[in-house]
Amino acid sequence: MPDNFERAAPTTESVCPECLARIPAARVVRDGDVYLEKTCPQHGDFRTIIWRGADSFKTWVKLKTPSFPKNPFTEVKDGCPFDCGLCAEHRQHTCSVLLEVTQRCDLHCPVCFADSGNDDSADWSMTEVEDWFKRLSEQSTSFNIQISGGEPCVRDDLPEIIRLGRSYGFKYFQLNTNGLRLARDPAYLAELKAAGLSTVFLQFDGTRDEIYKTIRGRGLLDQKLKTIEHCKEQGIGVVLVPTLIPNVNADDIGNIIRLALEHMPIVRGVHFQPISYFGRYPQSPADEARITIPEVIREIETQTDGMIRADVFCPPGCENALCSFHGNFVLMPNGDLKAITQHKEDACGCQPIIAEEGAARTRAFVAENWSAPTLITQLPVFGGQSLGEWDVFLERKRTHSFFVSGMAFQDAWNLDLERLRDCCIHIASRDGRLVPFCAYNLTDSSGRSLYRNAESKRFASRFSILQNQEILESNGE
Amino acid sequence: MTETKPVICYKCQKELVPTKTYLSYLGHSFSADILKCPECGEVYIPEELAKSRIAEVEMQLEDK
Q1: Domains and CATH numbers, chain A
Q2: Candidate from A317, A362, A394 with C-beta closest to B57
Q3: CB-CB: which of A384, A394, A397 is closest to B48?
Q4: Which of A98, A204, A433, B51 holds its CA 20 to 30 A away from the CA of A250?
Q5: Would the pLDDT of A388 be above 90?
Q6: What are phi and psi of B45, to 5 degrees?
Q7: What is the enclosing helix (H) or strand (E) of A338?
Q8: Does B10 reside within a domain?
Q9: What would the DSSP string read from start to end of A187-241?
């Protein structure tokens, strides 16, 4: 099977972090690590670490046949990433749709995708929410819905939003939250449960308060644990979501996994998000300020003392292989954490899978494995002959499955447009587009974004035209 | 369903007896009491078992 260097051209495309012009880029090995290198005719050279360990990069492959949108919302005009909506050249269907129902937040973190604040004028009206549910349902009701923000729990009417979504046929609702309100207001959580909330996707950066003080500005561990407790009372599945930052919490990976295991089965797994740099950065973020997917995987093995081995983690079947990793497990009654995934470097991906089918499988996996586990009393009862210990495994798979996964978002420095075109997590914008997550959050080094708000949209249309002209001129065309 | 009639090995003409047997699939191995010929070791998997639990094992181990 061709490895990542043989399969893909060594070149891809990216953007200039200064002006966001689309420019050629190359994946280059230096001293055993892989870098994205690019040059803007106006702003010079950029080099950013993307994968520490060139050997593992070669075999981290999952070949897919692209599935283009059946009904693209935007036309191809300026090319990727300026036509997002989705356009007809996007290579993967939607798996999850994020609805950022507010831009308000009750934390003010230095680390925030959404650049959230206090402005309640940025809340979506119920009409806007309904318009999106209607629009999406005309495409498919199989999308997983992520209620996000800002901090969505600042809205009292979230239960109504979930009920509305259910009325349009959507079945899986995930709440992306810092958990503060859920910790102090269990009645609100009960309302969300009654409305049909499936999963609390809980910002959870570590097992020590110093970590929260550094990242979020104050100690929050007690509130996080209280939220888990309340979810347990309500029977709502919890996914712990640490933003991983070198020298802040990358040494806490093993402790986070152990804490998650202690709170099984209501905690369904841990989803690591290595930090990416959105917002204003006068200087390029240093490579030392980044942690890449293979490092996270190695740290998982090291920090769990080998309880979870690195070779159980696989590239994804939905998004681009370089965007994420996952390992699935079953906690057996004797405490043994049994891995049910295995990365076979020479065997997986010999035949490309159809991207659309990968998206469908991922939607189904998330809906089943990120929601609260099946109660033993609700398990189907097989008649007839027992299958001995396999029966125990089957029961535990339903009641005590666990996952560890991670997704590496892209910013202006490490953006690879090949990866962006394979994205399956799409943000619903107020102007009616479905925008791939990393395009929606993309900002130049001055903090200006392509899609996040109306001012940015004007900026996007203006600069894409200007910059394309400049590139053409610099190429002598 | 009750499997009361004895099952006889076609080759050895011996009655199969429930025997602790390790069944492996995709690198996972668990034991179960399976009808086995005491002479040649051939095992018998009833159709009902193949269509229920064994099919379920395959499905659970082959997902994403």
Answers
A1: 64-379+386-419 (3.20.20.70)
A2: A394
A3: A384
A4: A98
A5: no
A6: -105, 110
A7: strand A337-339
A8: no
A9: HHHHHHHHHT--EEEEE---SSHHHHHHHHSS--HHHHHHHHHHHHHHT-EEEEE
Assess if residue B52 is contained within a domain: yes
* Overall number of domains in chain B: 1
Q: Nearest-CA residue of chain B relative to A385?
A: B49
Question: Is 0.95 surpassed by the pTM of this model?
Answer: no
User: How far is residue A412's CA from residue A277's CA, in Å, rounded to a whole number?
Assistant: 8
- The predicted-structure confidence for B20-33, as pLDDT tens digits, reads as follows 999 988 888 888 89
Average pLDDT over every residue of A102-110: 83
B49 contacts in chain A (CB < 8 Å): 384-385, 387
Domain extent at residue B49: 17-62
Does the residue B32 lie in any domain? Answer: yes
- Is residue A397 less than 8 Å (CB to CB) from chain B? yes
Report the SS3 class of residue A134.
Answer: helix
Q: Which member of B46, B56, B64 has the closest CB to residue A317? A: B64
The ipTM assigned to this model is: 0.82
Tell whether A365 lies on the interface with B, counting CB pairs under 8 A. Answer: yes
Asked if A239 and A200 count as a contact pair (C-beta separation under 8 A), the reply is yes
